[in-house]
């Protein structure tokens, strides 16, 4: 149960990029609930912008996460929104020093590191909330509630689809920070551990085995069009007609500019964007990157009681927004993250729902269907009351979907069905 707070929970943000900014914005919107009192961010522009927004004193502005832990504990919680490869060590250190933790997904790049964090959480008695934000989105909350109430009888199988959208794929997993799985995490974890988690959460039974297929088919050097160049700004002869043109995406259409660190003066934006396209990966040809992430990925999962699920992650769509079909013994359910349609075989009636939170206006623009800030609201309450049961995505709850992801990668690479073992 949520309670009024006598004072806001305090937190230090490690990583002031896109995700760190989203969680920090909750504090800006609800200062009576959360106060950001420190930040660690190596990018001077982001460090300064974040510090000014949250009025963080200079003594609590750090270039690296290591510097935070050289100080005695000075907040209630740590928000870890660093790159994937920098989740494990700061999380372990935060727990050791007595901080509660909000941990961006994926938990860590390896199965053993995920298990180590779980063990350290139990050892220290601290709270670790994993940012499986879809569990907090009103749409998925309603889906789980209806299933648990028997709206479609017993769940027999699930089909879940994540259309990444072709330009999002190019931005994040071909040019962007997650283009190389060895330096970050495999795309099934980096992008889709949300989806594995939701499938498991809705079915609410242990997963047993998994099979996966998929590869990098299109974004390869041999598919580069004739006349293309190393960068979209190098006089590429097909740039104007290429659907993945960086000039069109970032400069002309002004999309996904949060990676560009643009100055406040909008008159300089065009110049800065073009400079970034000439000097960073965001301006490089999508066919000539050092990317290795699959651009299509399918998995089949066996759960207890003979429940099955299939999941498909696809780069080549013109749209985004997850789609789900759930087949039950007494009905079925179809949804697209906006509307849920439940059909009852017994009555032949169809029920259409558009799930929203009671106070949706406060949270709807936070991302992931309102899930980002609804997670923050629950995390603040869990820390304030020292009650992890107020969260649905504690590390105990969230680790299984990560192990599913690691086993999916093993299956994909070894071409065999892999068991999912929660104990080692």
Describe the protein's topology.
Elements lengths: L8 E6 L3 H12 L4 E7 L3 H11 L6 E2 L2 H4 L8 E4 L7 H9 L3 E4 L7 H14 L3 E3 L7 H11 L6 E9 L2 H9 L12 H4 L2 H11 L3 E9 L30 H7 L16 H11 L16 E8 L3 E8 L8 E6 L2 E5 L4 E5 L5 E4 L6 H4 L7 H15 L9 H20 L3 E2 L5
Parallel strand pairs: 1-2, 1-4, 2-3, 4-5, 5-6, 7-10
Antiparallel strand pairs: 7-11, 8-9, 8-15, 9-10, 11-12, 12-13, 13-14
Order of helices and strands: EHEHEHEHEHEHEHHHEHHEEEEEEHHHE
Q: Please tally the β strands and state the result.
A: 15
Strand neighbour order, sheet with most strands: 14-13-12-11-7-10-9-8-15
CATH architecture heading of the largest domain: 2-Layer Sandwich
Query: What is the rounded distance between the termini?
Result: 35 Å
Please name the CATH topology of the largest domain: Dihydrodipicolinate Reductase, domain 2
Number of structural domains: 3
- Helix/strand-derived category reads alpha/beta
> Fraction of residues in helices?
25-40%
Largest sheet, in brief, is:
9 strands, mixed
Shape: globular
Give the mean pLDDT.
95
State which percent range the strand residues make up.
15-25%
Q: What's the name of the CATH homologous superfamily of the largest domain?
A: Dihydrodipicolinate Reductase, domain 2
- What's the CATH first level of the largest domain? Alpha Beta
Q: For the CA atoms, what is the radius of gyration?
A: 22 Å
| Helix segment tally | 14
């Amino acid at each position: 149960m949520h309670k009024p707070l006598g004072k806001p929970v305090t937190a230090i943000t490690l990583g002031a990029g896109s995700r760190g900014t989203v969680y920090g914005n909750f504090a800006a919107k609800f200062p009576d609930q959360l106060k950001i009192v420190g930040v660690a961010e190596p990018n001077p522009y982001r460090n300064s912008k974040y510090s000014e927004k949250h009025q963080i004193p200079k003594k609590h502005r750090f270039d690296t996460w290591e510097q935070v832990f050289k100080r005695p504990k000075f907040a209630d919680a740590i928000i870890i929104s660093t790159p994937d490869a920098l989740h494990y060590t700061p999380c372990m250190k935060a727990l050791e020093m007595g901080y509660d933790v909000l941990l961006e997904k994926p938990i860590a790049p390896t199965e053993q590191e995920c298990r180590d964090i779980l063990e350290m959480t139990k050892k220290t008695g601290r709270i670790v909330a994993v940012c499986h934000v879809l569990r907090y989105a009103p749409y998925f909350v309603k889906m789980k509630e209806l299933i648990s109430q028997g709206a479609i009888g017993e769940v027999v199988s699930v089909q879940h689809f994540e259309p990444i959208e072709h330009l999002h794929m190019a931005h994040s997993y071909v040019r962007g920070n997650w283009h190389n799985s060895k330096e970050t995490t495999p795309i099934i974890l980096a992008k889709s551990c949300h989806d594995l988690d939701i499938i498991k959460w809705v079915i609410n039974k242990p997963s047993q085995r998994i099979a996966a297929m998929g590869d990098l088919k299109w974004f390869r050097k041999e598919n580069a069009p004739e006349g293309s160049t190393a960068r979209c700004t190098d006089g590429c002869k097909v740039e104007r007609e290429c659907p993945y043109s960086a000039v069109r995406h970032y400069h002309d259409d002004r999309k996904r500019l949060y990676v560009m660190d643009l100055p406040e003066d909008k008159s300089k934006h065009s110049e800065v964007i073009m400079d970034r396209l000439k000097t960073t990966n965001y301006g490089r040809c999508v066919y000539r990157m050092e990317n290795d992430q699959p651009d299509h990925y399918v998995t089949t999962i066996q759960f207890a009681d003979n429940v099955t699920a299939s999941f498909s992650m696809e780069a080549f769509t013109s749209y985004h927004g997850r789609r789900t079909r759930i087949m039950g013994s007494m009905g079925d359910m179809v949804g697209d993250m906006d509307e849920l349609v439940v059909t009852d075989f017994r009555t032949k009636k169809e029920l259409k729902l558009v799930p929203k939170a009671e106070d949706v206006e406060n949270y709807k623009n936070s991302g992931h269907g309102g899930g980002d800030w609804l997670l923050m609201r629950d995390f603040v309450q869990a820390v304030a009351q020292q009650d992890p049961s107020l969260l649905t995505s504690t590390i105990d709850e969230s680790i299984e979907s990560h192990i599913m992801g690691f086993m999916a990668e093993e299956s994909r690479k070894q071409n065999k069905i892999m068991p999912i073992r929660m104990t080692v």
